[in-house]
Amino acid sequence: MELRNLLIIVALALYALAMVGIVSTDAYSQAAGTEARGLHALMVEVRASAQDPLLAEAPRGASR
């Protein structure tokens, strides 16, 4: 095996270990949970505005 291929494999393995270390932390877990709640809130707002009868005939770009 070429030295370059070996270095690429080692770099990928180290990268994977670093990602596992980051993902397993409490800070990452809290940030991911906050992001999920924010996305859910955004989706609720988008759905509510799409069902708003006052905006059904409004021109594009109109907002509440």
List the SSEs and their pairings.
Layout (H helix, E strand, L loop, with lengths): L2 H21 L2 H25 L14
Main sheet summary: none
Gyration radius (Cα, Å) is 23 Å
Helix content: over 70%
Give the number of helices. Answer: 2
Kindly state the mean pLDDT as a whole number? 84
Return the string of H and E elements.
HH
Report how far apart the termini are: 63 Å
Strand content: under 5%
Low-confidence stretches: none
Total beta strands: 0
- The shape, in one word, is elongated
Determine the structural class based on helices, strands and strand pairing. mainly alpha
Short descriptors:
mainly alpha
Summarize the structure.
The chain is mainly α and 64 residues long. It has a domain at 22-50. 72% of the residues lie in helices and 0% in strands.
Give a verbal description of the structure:
- The protein is an all-alpha fold and 64 residues long.
- It has a domain at 22-50.
- The protein has helices spanning 3-23, 26-50.
- The radius of gyration is 23 Å and the shape is elongated.
